[in-house]
Specification:
6 strands
Length: about 220
């Protein structure tokens, strides 16, 4: 993994980018994306006149293909085997075809952030709940940087200190989805990791997107409550 270097001109932290072709992405990404797809396809109820043998096969998240892939990525997470960007792009393209793609990506991002948060020591999580600002805010910014490195692979990344914002060039989401819905994955992860560290609710703005002609994708948080 590339070592970060500080960009003192704008107060951000930048991660250098090699060629971006090798395995560089946490397997937690595809695992939680597929688990979200599966969970959203589970029927909340079965109607009396519903023919489950007809309706369930239409739910791709409940297919044997997805089940096999989930088991595979569970093993990849256990062995901490990094994934290639091309694999993630192909997986995201499967989700992009769905009308509820943006909701799936946003929820998967939130689950990734929760996974990242729960890997912190319980004492640290408890302390961040009671420590005064700016300590939780600084911890959140650092967590955003660590998390996005694992999710973005070798794509050029910068994280501003405050207001916390993330700029990502050659984003996997933009490569996978020219419509821009896949960018909700990074937005969901960003808002959730900030909320978990600071105890505040955030709205994520996405004022620049590569899918709409931007040179990079930019996400910025705005406090809601």
């Amino acid at each position: 993994m590339a070592r970060p270097d500080s960009d003192s001109s704008n107060g951000s932290v930048r991660s250098a980018s090699p060629d971006g072709r090798g395995p560089s992405i946490t397997p937690v990404f595809p695992l939680l994306l597929l688990e979200t797809l599966r969970d959203m396809d589970r029927p909340e109820e079965v109607l009396e006149d519903e023919d489950v043998t007809v309706s369930l096969p239409r739910r791709f998240g409940l297919s044997d293909v997805v089940s096999v892939q989930i088991r595979r990525f569970q093993e990849e997470v256990r062995t901490k085997r990094r994934q290639a960007p091309s694999q993630m792009i192909d997986l995201m393209r499967l989700v992009v075809r769905r009308p509820d793609a943006e909701a799936i990506f946003a929820e998967a991002g939130r689950r990734v952030a929760l996974h990242h948060w729960e890997r912190r020591a319980a004492t640290v999580r408890g302390a961040l709940r009671v420590l005064p600002n700016p300590i939780p805010r600084i911890a959140a910014q650092r967590a955003v940087r660590r998390m996005f490195r694992r999710l973005a692979g070798n794509s050029p990344l910068s994280v501003g200190r405050w207001p916390v914002e993330v700029r990502l060039r050659d984003a996997l989401s933009a490569a996978a989805d020219p419509g821009g819905a896949a960018c909700a994955f990074y937005g969901g992860a960003f808002a959730e990791i900030m909320a978990l560290h600071t105890g505040r609710s955030y709205r994520v703005l996405h004022p620049e997107c590569e899918t709409h002609g931007g040179e990079s994708c930019l996400w910025r948080v705005e406090v809601v409550s």
